[in-house]
Fold:
Amino acid sequence: MKVDTIAERNHRFNQRTPYYLRASFLMDGEEWLYLNHLFRNLKDEFEIPQRIEIKYSDIWTLQKYQINAERALDKRLRLF
Structure:
């Protein structure tokens, strides 16, 4: 039985799942509370239930839609 090296396992893993973590950052607690408040307001504005998870890219799309309502929203975002 051949034992794979860590590099080979990582390469195979990366081929199957190319994205695991996009970014990480540190944030002050007060800033997080403010950001969370804005996020909840955005969900309320678009009538998205607070318990529903949405992707970061969805937030960006909704924000762009606020600026220019003529843009088409993704079908999955119109379900809210």
Q: What stands out?
A: The mean pLDDT is 76. The two ends are 52 Å apart (CA to CA). The chain has one domain: 23-78.
